[in-house]
Structures are given as structure tokens and as C-alpha cells.
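seq:
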Amino acid sequence: MGALEPEALGLLAFTSRKLRLRAGDRLVDAGEALDGALVIMSGEIELAAPGLPPRRVGPQTTLDELALFAPIEASADARAATDAVVMRVTRETMGRVLEEFPAAAPATRARVADQLARFAREARRVETP
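struct:
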């Protein structure tokens, strides 16, 4: 979401729901239907995906960004490794931001295309023994 101008980011921050998590709290489970992306504002989140070692991510990380544009399922179990604040940005909110700030659309589209390409590379790696 770094491609958005400050005013657009402000609208996202104002209209998105903030989740305050304690260490150990569940954020999402792998396979759970998502209505948007999750942006880590503070703290650390541990991700655990089948067949991969767990990893921690921190502030300014966006999880499941593709859910901003299409219905998808969470790619991993996500739990708070520390106390954390996470912003939930829904597809509806993102659509509103892109309507009000159309100049952000090309950069957003490029970012999503990069994510899809990365996903395709990872999928090929997993399928190839």
C-alpha cells in the first residue's frame, strides 16, 4: 500500500478497523475467507503455513493484500507473537479509496501484478519435486 498518496493513506487509516492483539491472540487461520488485507501497525505476527517454517513479520507488513481486490482465503495461520495492532482494510474501503484517488490505481495494479507473479513462482516451486 506504499504506492498510495498521503491523503489516500489517511482515508484508509480513518475508515479501517484497528485490532488490538495480545501476545498469543489469533488473527486468522489458514483457509479462512478474507474480506480484505491486514496491515501490521505495531508488534510482531507469527505466520505458519503448511510445509513452511514459521516466520515473524512486523510493522508495515501487509498480509493477504490480494484480498483487497478479490475473495481469497488466508494463506497462513497468523497469531500475535507480541502485543500488536493490526489494521483491517476491507475490499469496500479500498474500492472507495481508489474511486476518490484514481491516480493511485496504476501503481496499485502494478503491485498486485507483482504479487501474482511472486505467487505463481512460489506455486511452481512447491509443485516441482
